[in-house]
Predict the 3D structure of the following.
Amino acid sequence: MKFDTLAGQNPIDRLKVVGQPVDRFEAKLKTTGTATYAYEHHDIAPNVAYGYILGAAIAKGRITSIDIRQAEAAPGVLAVVTHRNAGPLGVGKFYVQRMLAAPDVDHYHQPVAVVVAETFEQARAASSLIRVDYTRGEGRFDLAAQLESAPVAPQMQFGGPTQTDVGDFEGAFAAAEVKIDETYVVPDQAHAMMEPHATIARWDGDRLTCWTSIQQMNWGIRDLGLILGIPRENLRLISPFIGGGFGGKGTVQADLALAAVCARAARRPVKLALQRPIMFNSTIHRPKTIQRIRLAATRDGRLTAVGHESWSGNLAGGRTEPATLSTRALYAGPNRMTRVRLATLDLAEGNAMRAPGEAPGLMALEIAMDELAEKLGVDPVDFRILNDTQVDPEKPDRPFSSRPFVECLRLGADRFGWSARKAEPGQVRDGHWLIGMGMAGAIRGAPISKAGARLRLDRHGVVTVETDMTDIGTGSYTIVQQTAAEMMGVPLDKVVARLGDSSFPETPGSGGQQGAPSVTAGVYAACMKLREAIAQRLGFNGVDAEFTDGEVRSGNRSVPIARAADDGDLVVEDSMEFGDLAKRYAIQTFGAHFAEVGVNAFTGEIRVRRMLAACAAGRILNPKTARSQVIGGMTMGIGAALMEEMAVDKRLGFFVNHDLAGYEVPVHADIPHLEVLFVDEVDPAISPVKAKGVGELGLTGVAPAVANAVYNATGVRVRDYPITLDKFLDRLPAIA
């Protein structure tokens, strides 16, 4: 099926199942410990061996010798894999990292060897017996040292243009009545998901099956084939449950590639999980950005110049962090300029992490908007409303498909009690606490991609949906079931969803906030095909047949849909493809975040007291799971604002706090009640389902809302995240 015209009324719009706050299908499995994650498949083979990675002890250089003899002789050891016996290993299309130092070392903790043994403990013990000698090279570990030399990043497939110009930015900025020119720093951040990267690999002849933790099956199959040099038809990935990813499991990481190599070397299935330090220093992360924002406006508050320059670093050939994405689309302004510059750094690869580009970009832009609003003497909410636009600021002839940004701002401000905010900072106290309110706008792209599904109707009236879509804790199983139940007119308990298997029809998987809209569109297409097949088999006119309450009805005639499978299961497969609507319309999601914080006047301790998000993301498929996505994003945003930072040792080139003890993330005590509101809207330009993703929108704008609240509480502006007390304690107001 092809979607190339604006969606009209269709069976989804009945909203008997879709749009309802249905409990997550897998919730009981997860809360009772019966959901099986990648490392926990114990029944796939009787003789699974264990792998353990030895990471490089230097950040840049070359292996001069590696002695594995003692490790090979250790109890239980089956194989030791190094670059000398691993065979040729390629590189995937999305990540540039090499899975094995061979013999050049690109970054700290790059895998040097993998020990395979009968038990995990034997493999770990034997890894300590490997002796590696290196020649240390000179590395580049400091982004700030390359601000002058870093070039504009080359154009890449994702992230938009790295250089844009509209009008005369420099002239307009120079002539402006009111302006700001500030620099903001967002540090390296880790995905720090609960479940580690883990894989069990098994060879059956020349065919490889891997039970793994991966977000995007199609990319995984593609990249694993490129790395191992084998055809994709010989590969199968299985990933029914994933314990968090946030972009860090987008495609193949070292656990998957090296488990496959080790299983071939040991001639046994091999189970391999990455140790936490390896995850921090040898998988991808959100790279540090240094961002310069220049904004200018007339005295009455209308933006006249919008400039955003961003610097990030990566391994040679790696991607940039597209931090200017939000700035290009969020506010009006006739004169505009963005630049994205990319330095080469010898740290672990920087790549996609929840809302890549928008999350760190808004951490700068939305503080800058508040700073300019204060100079103008305009309320921050009013300033944003004044500079709203209903067309793409860079292409005025391209309207937004829907843009309820102002509705988000007004709804959020009203429900939060924004009118009680004191414009002058440091004016509200509660005992020893300085109290402040802050807010920020939010925007996140709404991509959608071709997605397929296979449907099977059996004689019991059960509809089984198969698709390679993954569920990373987002509720994919549930919205797939809801979509099929709505379309086929059957109860939810008559739908079975089977996900996370690369042998199923292809989707873009979980990533980029496109999973939900894409997979539900694919299920919609397959359901339309199944409806036609059922109608034909039961003798109905498919055009006017109604599917409801487990029956097909037309006129005075009704037949249970199960009758269509009396002679055997009815199986169909289809996919949804997309035309040029995304070119004709700017398709985005929008939101507004509001925060109240308390800052201890004596110690500088910051406590978030309450937060509210108002979001617009098309049709909300399930308000319960969507709310969970948004509060998860808000929690992550609080972490980005107040604590998260991968600290770089700029002498030796590694992330020092490379585990969950040293890399601080929010815990329950850090998070107050979080309120989520959804603006009632549908977007007919996105798909027949009219829904967009929401999981990354919930993060964008949170951190600057907290930062602006801290400023309102204290009068101290911090532009270097995270906002830790060492950056403002000496500037707190005097205690009366």
Notes: The chain has 15 helices and 32 strands. The chain has a mean pLDDT of 97. The radius of gyration is 27 Å.
